[in-house]
């Protein structure tokens, strides 16, 4: 039964149920009590009288999820399984096969096996499609099939998967998996150290501290700190990492909420590791939340030069709230502000466009703030780097190719067509790019521009009004022009696509650690950071008004 539309009636009422413990309950007791009573009677009548059998839990889940979708994407309801998944996400520890898995409707896709963990030792590779776990067919499993791969340490599981059209099975012994927050730290040259941070887990600050200490002992006099693609994590770990480079009792972030107890000021609490070492922080559009606290506060305090592209723009803080029967609500409780006073939230969820999408804060509405040295910085759209590199920003065209998994799938095919590559010298050439373009065409890649969508709408209306024949020649000409623009877009994004393809292919052969090693000698952003750090006067000039 399709229940999504029917439950729109009860969404506002469920919202009030979840708000019962807030201050609004005290201020508007009668209205809340009234709406709860209406919801209770409506819910009962639907379950008792609807013509077909209904599932009370399904009805409630749909109602809750539809209600929360009206708020922001970070306020979410967790069932019992989701709660455990959230714990794994924040700690980086779990018991399973040791791989990043993507759940699709009828199969699980291995995205990345972790080096020397069970999935890797069993021979699973990125791109493998898991069809069956023990005797359970993934397509028949109603919940998140990824849960089937988890279990107690030492327990065995049989995995049936498809690779390049061939069906295989392999036994895997589960074990405890501790995902490293710092996948690589290494000297770039004799004086510059490099630290990559993948996520803000509970061990992140200690791992970064250990990495920096080691590099300093190896002779590091300058440091590149890579936060690209880091989606965030624990707030306290972000503060502790900033604390490595700034003095004790420095304000790093404040949170502001309608609930007084959530209005807090977070300061550094420990003695720093090094407040003098020149520091460059790399960010991109995948750097979010805790990554933006670190990069934004180091920028506000004029403690680091930020390089790359504008960060994601998540200035909202969530907190888990336990509910009945082991469920949980992760709810946005406040906004965070960097030391200068700016909030870098990019999307306004109170304002929606005609498609119901949150509206991005416009640049003309940004507010100016001052860093410690008096430099101008702005709110409203993520952390803007001190040195913006256009090649770091993923275009909409490229995003569409990534979203449709063409980069991932092409890299998988490349891996099985090429037995080895050299980590130090690997580069794709023009012939490889032509091969990728052919691959896109063979697999019906379709990039829909907004212009094309609007044009199709015009033709549809013209047909209804009988004008389509009059416009047909103009329509054909415009479609031809749009297709020419699409061909241009492919070539215009050539360098960006080649880098993404190279990175994905390197992952196949040399794992995550190998990818970061590849970065050290092949990545433009790291090279730019190195150039600046080697010129102290140039470095300092970026930290002055």
The helical percent reads: 25-40%
Rg of Cα set: 26 Å
Please report the first level of CATH classification, the CATH class of the largest domain. Alpha Beta
Shape assignment: globular
Termini distance? Answer: 62 Å
Please count the helical segments: 17
Count of individual domains:
5
Percent strand equals 15-25%
Oligomer: single chain
Instruction: State the CATH topology of the largest domain.
Output: 2-enoyl-CoA Hydratase, Chain A, domain 1
* Fourth-level CATH superfamily of the largest domain: 2-enoyl-CoA Hydratase, Chain A, domain 1
- Overall average pLDDT: 86
CATH architecture annotation of the largest domain: Alpha-Beta Complex
**Spans with pLDDT under 50 lasting ≥5 residues?**
1-25
Number of strands: 23
Main sheet attributes: strand count, strand direction, barrel closure: 6 strands, antiparallel
What report would you give on this structure?
It is a single chain. 40% of the residues lie in helices and 21% in strands. With 545 residues, it is of the alpha+beta class. Strands 3, 4, 5, 6, 7 and 8 form a 6-stranded antiparallel sheet that branches. It has a 6-stranded mixed sheet with strand order 10-11-12-15-16-23, with helices on both faces. Strands 1, 13, 14, 17 and 18 form a 5-stranded antiparallel sheet that branches. Residues 1-25 have low confidence and may be disordered.
